[in-house]
Amino acid sequence: MNILVINCGSSSLKYQLIDMKDEKVLAKGLAERIGIEGGRVKYEAEGHDEVVIEETLADHKAALKIVLDSLKHEEYGAVKSLDEIDAVGHRVVHGGEDFAESVVIDEKVMKVVNDNVEIAPLHNPPNIIGIEACREIMGDVPMVAVFDTAFHQTIPAVNYIYALPYEYYEKYKVRRFGFHGTSHQYITERAAKMLGKDLDDVNLITCHLGNGSSISAVIGGKCYDTSMGFTPLEGLAMGTRTGDMDPAIVPFIMEKEKLTPDEMSSVMNKKSGVLGISGVSSDFRDLEEAAEEGNDRAQLALDIFENRVRKYIGAYLTEMDHCDGIIFTAGVGENSITTRERVAAGLKSLGIKLDAEKNDMRGKEAIVSAQDSSIPLLVIPTNEELMIAMETARLV
Fold first, then answer.
1. 188 and 236 in contact (C-beta within 8 Å)?
2. Is 7 annotated among the ligand-binding residues?
């Protein structure tokens, strides 16, 4: 079975074509600058060099058409005909309380996704556009929605209800939803296999650390708590997002700086985090380089990020009777040797120890804890596209 995985952003479209027989990536790429000047589609098929198609992309449908034409191209295509694509899996960021798992897309599903635009105005609209473009071009090919929020729908009320008047939850669904769920689910399943445990028996702390970061507590293979909240703004200090802070700061700064709600939202989502602290960059590689050169604010930004990671790990350990593993994934978690070192160094009082030699690697599955560590430390590169494909294959 060949599954096409589609991940639409506001001006981009990432894709992979995966043969589920052996989980081989037949082709992958990115369409970017959709709807603006300078559009292009990057395409790379197994056994062929990357092809870059420079063309104005009026909308997602135009981008998707180029992607599909590339997939069946005589010279560098991955399939001879679109009939060889058995299903399409779409990443959809927000499913609200309506979906606790992936679903085959029908009109009812589309209505719910549209209804959730109000609480995910930056994310759901491009996901909807991608689905509609695929339906228009590909016709009756089965399609599946895989929700970022679905994995977190097992969180109990004690962890998802905010200490606000309860009527706001009843009227507006103001609650913790959590995000990066597809990534947390993938590394949970991989960790269970690496540790030789049944998924239903495994307790983990999963750390998705990148420009956007979140940590989840997993009990019995299901999410019990997570750091992101009603939006992806809550939790860790991130690349450009504030993470946790005193909510009274918001009206205080708005009054002092004469900011509108939209302007304040932009400050918190796009100008804060390690970028705001350091004044250097939201890229952790740039921060590490600046810190090595003696930039104190860059070092402070890294220290704050790592301290928040340790705090969440410590908090989540109190929610489970035992922990079978702490997992590092995503851009920083998979690739930053020093971040893993510094996070682990602050957990020594809990008997958690890193093995420096094992940890000296990037982007590979490995157990990097010392032999006598009280809890295993694992690095697992995330693969959200494969998780989406697996969910799609399961359903169709």
1. no
2. yes
Q: pLDDT tens, 81-116? A: 999 999 999 999 888 888 888 999 999 999 988 988
With a pLDDT cut of 70, the percent of the chain lying above it is 99
Strands of 12-19's sheet, edge to edge? Answer: 51-54, 40-45, 24-32, 12-19, 2-8, 87-92, 143-147, 103-104
Reference 187, options 135, 223, 144; nearest CA is: 223
Q: Which residues pair with 223 in a beta bridge?
A: 218
Domains of the chain are 2-147 (3.30.420.40), 196-379 (3.30.420.40)
Q: Match 């650390």 to its residue by tokens.
A: 209
List all residues 6 or more positions away from 311 whose beta carbon is below 8 Å from its beta carbon. none
CA distance 136 to 138: 6
Residue 340 tokens read as 């893993």
Residue where the block lists tokens 């060889």: 84
CA distance linking residue 195 with residue 207, whole number of Å: 17
The response to whether 159 counts as a known ligand-binding position is: no
The β-bridge relationship of strands 51-54 and 2-8 is: unpaired
Question: Residues 175, 178, 182, CA angle at the centre, nearest 5°?
Answer: 150
> Whole-angstrom Cα distance, residue 162 to residue 164?
5
CB-CB contact of 89 with 4 (8 Å): yes
328 annotated as belonging to a binding site for a ligand:
no
Reduced to 3 states, what is the DSSP secondary structure of residue 7?
Answer: strand
Looking at the whole model, is its pTM more than 0.85?
A: yes
Rg (CA), the chain: 21
Q: d(Cα 144, Cα 92) in Å, to the nearest integer?
A: 10
Q: For residue 12, which of 32, 39, 42 has the smallest C-alpha distance?
A: 32
* Catalytic residue from among 22, 59, 106, 148: 148
Strand order in the sheet with 222-226: 222-226, 214-219, 204-208, 325-329, 377-379, 366-367
CA distances from 59 to 56, 84, 91, 206 (A): 9, 25, 18, 36
Kind of pairing, strands 12-19 and 2-8?
A: antiparallel
Residue 187: what residue type?
I
Is pLDDT of 120 > 90? no
Task: Dump strand ranges (E) for 194-300.
Answer: 204-208, 214-219, 222-226
| Annotation marks residue 59 as catalytic | no
The answer to whether the annotation marks 284 as part of a ligand binding site is: yes
Q: Return d(Cα 167, Cα 220) in angstroms, integer.
A: 32
